[in-house]
């Protein structure tokens, strides 16, 4: 955690996009590859981090979102096509290029959440090392690529979420209590229902309910958001613990090719939606971008995009993949 925090702070000083997440992720990844004595953040860090991000994403779901229901539906109906097209390509790619087994190729190919895909693969009795590495690299490449695409399509140089909320000390206790309750209740209900990515989606739904009902308009305190970004970056970076450098080098090339095709399809679908329903290009790209829900939503916050819209389509993708 110390290494990840230092990485995040340093990235902020040198104006790297999304500094707390990218900086901590890079530092943790470097520490893992250098064989330093580190461990992946445990459940006591992981669940609060995911719950905080879920509550943050849910705070973007306001009544104004329902003004875009037609555009959301028009975008979401492309999700099955996107998942199946990228999944079929990924299966062929990992089978023929990487030489993976059919089962490994299947779980590497689908652009689901890292935790969901590795858990499902583990439940199926597969060796998840290659699968976990493929998804960790996919998410890493997407997180790095989206700020570059934002610069192309939005002419924005910095992606920063260091000022989306107020300090803990400036927030009323009433708002803090409601947001904490949304996180706890959301995680509890999601666990009971077995929701995919439940530690994010449960608090997301609970927070969205509070904001739609007008009970609060607050976002989690800025200190919690910054800490959650550092934890998320550490979690992704620590996926490379005990990985062989030669294997990682090979996996990087494979993941780069797969992500390039997936992002290419995301841009194509976004362009179609821009032409037919005038959906802003970057909103369309981020709605289909094959990263994780927390990572994509954080970047959307940093770009000032419609986070509720993007998160809704991303949730549809995760649910569809889990059902598939």
Could you provide a short overview of the structure?
The protein has 15 helices and no strands. It has helices at 2-13, 19-33, 43-58, 69-76, 79-96, 102-109, 114-123, 129-154, 173-193, 198-212, 222-237, 245-277, 281-288, 293-303, 307-323. The chain is globular, with a radius of gyration of 19 Å.
Report on the architecture of this protein.
The structure is a single chain. The protein has 15 helices and no strands. Helix content is 72%, strand content 0%. With 324 residues, it is an all-alpha fold. The longest helix is centred in the last third of the chain and has 33 residues. The protein is globular. Helix 12 crosses helix 13.
Secondary structure tally: strands: 0
Task: Give me the Rg, rounded.
Answer: 19 Å
Q: Which ranges are low-confidence, i.e. pLDDT below 50, for 5 or more consecutive residues?
A: none
In this structure, how is the largest beta sheet organized?
Answer: none
Share of helical residues: over 70%
End-to-end Cα distance: 36 Å
Mean residue pLDDT: 90
Strand fraction equals: under 5%
* Tally of helical runs: 15
Structural category: mainly alpha
Order of helices and strands: HHHHHHHHHHHHHHH
Shape: globular
Observed structural traits:
324 residues; mainly alpha; 15 helices; 72% helix; globular
Question: Any chance you could write out the topology, listing elements then pairs?
Answer:
Elements: H1 2-13, H2 19-33, H3 43-58, H4 69-76, H5 79-96, H6 102-109, H7 114-123, H8 129-154, H9 173-193, H10 198-212, H11 222-237, H12 245-277, H13 281-288, H14 293-303, H15 307-323
Helix pairs in contact: 1-2, 2-11, 3-9, 3-10, 3-11, 5-6, 5-12, 6-8, 7-8, 8-12, 8-14, 9-10, 12-13, 13-15, 14-15
């Amino acid at each position: 955690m110390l290494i990840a925090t230092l990485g995040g702070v340093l990235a902020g000083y040198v104006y790297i996009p999304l500094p707390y997440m990218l900086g901590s992720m890079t530092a943790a990844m470097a520490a893992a590859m250098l064989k330093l004595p580190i461990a992946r953040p445990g459940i006591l860090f992981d669940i609060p981090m995911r719950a905080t991000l879920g509550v943050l994403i849910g705070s973007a779901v306001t009544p104004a979102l329902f003004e875009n229901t037609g555009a959301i539906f028009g975008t979401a109906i492309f999700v099955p096509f996107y998942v199946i097209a990228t999944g079929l390509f990924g299966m062929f790619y990992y089978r023929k290029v990487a030489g993976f087994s059919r089962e490994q190729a299947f779980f590497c190919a689908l652009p689901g959440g890292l935790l969901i895909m590795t858990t499902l693969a583990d439940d199926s009795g597969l060796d998840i090392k290659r699968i976990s590495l493929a998804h960790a690299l996919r998410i890493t490449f997407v997180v790095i690529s989206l700020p570059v695409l934002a610069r192309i399509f939005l002419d924005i140089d910095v992606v920063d979420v260091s000022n989306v909320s107020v300090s803990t000390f400036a927030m009323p206790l009433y708002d803090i209590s409601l947001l904490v309750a949304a996180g706890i209740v959301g995680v509890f209900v999601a666990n009971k229902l077995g929701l995919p990515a439940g530690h994010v989606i449960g608090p997301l739904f609970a927070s969205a309910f509070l904001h739609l009902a007008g009970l609060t308009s607050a976002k989690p305190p800025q200190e919690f958001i910054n800490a959650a970004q550092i934890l998320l970056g550490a979690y992704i970076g620590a996926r490379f613990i005990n990985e062989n450098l030669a294997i990682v080098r090979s996996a990087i090339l494979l993941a780069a090719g797969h992500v390039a095709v997936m992002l290419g399809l995301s841009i194509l679908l976004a362009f179609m939606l821009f032409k037919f329903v005038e959906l802003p290009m970057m909103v369309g790209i981020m709605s289909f971008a094959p990263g994780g829900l927390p990572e994509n939503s954080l970047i959307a916050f940093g770009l000032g995009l419609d986070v509720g819209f993007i998160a809704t389509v991303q949730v549809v993708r995760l649910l569809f993949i889990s059902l598939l």
